[in-house]
């Protein structure tokens, strides 16, 4: 008996298929984000999804096959390549490669898919989209303050109301000062330092007690998975906890001064936060939109100065039905060392990244997502199959397209009833029908599917429906384009506020 060799149609774990409605909503949101970025003077850039692995940054594990956290493979010349983990490291490579030709500061935005070779879970995917904006070549924290203000403007542009979000700002230099104070400075402690950063970064998910566990021996989560901790002593855990719990606002900086002690890095970080606070206040964004908050860390090792997160503050229900804040939808910070890796000289840079899917989810929750199905094409039904008649239908489609109207001829092999069902599934605004009688009269029948559905809803029985032939009318072939345009204009009128 022959074996069944057919492949099984299945989606890999951690990946999703996205349909037309979601893609249309995504495009609409991305355009609003792009418009804000452009308003601030940023220009578009696109980088490839694949980079040489060594270009992606020192945060990758040092292994013979560097495939933990990233998807990697060897080229035919035995060099390691990886799917990009984020959009920042590829930007650093691009700037370093074209440094002499680019204006400095160089301000760019990029939207694209990134890939994480991590365990998938609820809301955690291996492929997702980010939308970044970065300024390279600006040493002043004025660039960081501007990014934070742009983040606020972006959230409002897509529909997040003022008061439903906050842009939280911290400084990694302050945390570096704390880490130096507990003996985790220097390159030899890079691994443990990263573990501490990732522990603090989970504050909003596991709370201060969970963070303390992750700073110590480790944490067993409710699912039974154990995460190994940083192994700090109790006194050091207390110091890191005091840093995280210092409190938001400029008033919390005085408490942080006590925590960082004599660390020059820590003091420099506090000075930068004070300056950001003044700049934000001068522009009027200190009304709750942008806030100094020491709980913001960002988990990646390459951040070197101010770090920030855009957090949505309205409540949603968690998996157990408990009210929780929606949480972070964007974040970023200063990474003065990434471009320097390629050039061997300091190149200051800062930027932030929006999690596109997560922001879409937030807008859907608030009922502000543009989810209306995209208007499909006008469908010309293939009533007759003879070649000369197919040529007639093709001519109609070409005339519609020449006038900027989306249109297609039905290319399947089914009859009229199935063709009408096809047009409904395509969300067609209208169909065009021309049988032999209409052809002889030089006419076409046009059926307005939207208006027809409204009328049909009020008709009692099939006989009445057939007699009414709702929203179907005949026009001369020469008038077809104008008639279709009229249907499309009437459909668009309510969204433009023109309906009666």
TrEMBL record:
It is found in: Cytoplasm. Residues 29-377 form the Aminoacyl-transfer RNA synthetases class-II family profile domain. It is an enzyme of class 6 (ligase). One of its GO terms (molecular function) is histidine-tRNA ligase activity. Keywords: Aminoacyl-tRNA synthetase, ATP-binding, Cytoplasm, Ligase, Nucleotide-binding, Protein biosynthesis. GO terms for biological process: histidyl-tRNA aminoacylation. It catalyses: tRNA(His) + L-histidine + ATP = L-histidyl-tRNA(His) + AMP + diphosphate + H(+). GO terms for cellular component: cytoplasm. Its EC number is 6.1.1.21. Homodimer. Belongs to the class-II aminoacyl-tRNA synthetase family. This is Histidine--tRNA ligase. The gene is hisS.
